Amino acid sequence: MKDFQEKLDEKYAPMAIITSSLNANMKLVIPKDSLQVFIDKTNKAFTYEGFTAVNDTMIQLR
């Protein structure tokens, strides 16, 4: 049986990743080359609809 901390990590890790990726304007901004990893780690809490380029290396998700 999983211990309490493992259960918390499974449940809330996606939200921690999402909140750590918010910029000062509360927009979700990540490096372009991290998109697939971001989707894989947050798909239980986030629905990916597309992105807008912020600059050459960063994208804003919607």
Task: Produce a short descriptive summary.
The chain has 62 residues and is of the alpha+beta class. Helices cover 40% and strands 16% of the residues.
Polypeptide structure, described:
This protein has two helices and three strands. By secondary structure, the protein is of the alpha+beta class. It has a three-stranded antiparallel beta sheet with strand order 1-3-2, with no helix packed on it. The mean pLDDT is 93.
Which regions have little confidence, pLDDT < 50, spanning 5+ residues? none
Mean pLDDT comes to 93
The major sheet is characterized as: 3 strands, antiparallel
Please report the number of helical segments: 2
Q: Judging from the principal axes of the Cα atoms, what is the shape? A: elongated
Helix and strand element order: HEHEE
**Beta-strand level of the residues, as a percent range?**
15-25%
**What is the radius of gyration?**
13 Å
How much helix is in the residues?
Answer: 40-55%
What's the β-strand tally? 3
**Spatial strand order of the main sheet:** 1-3-2
Beginning-to-end CA distance, first to last residue: 37 Å
Structural class: alpha+beta
Which secondary structure elements does this structure contain, and how are they paired or packed?
Layout: H1 4-20, E1 29-31, H2 35-42, E2 51-53, E3 58-61
Antiparallel strand pairs: 1-3, 2-3
List keywords for this structure.
62 residues; 3-stranded antiparallel sheet; alpha+beta; single chain
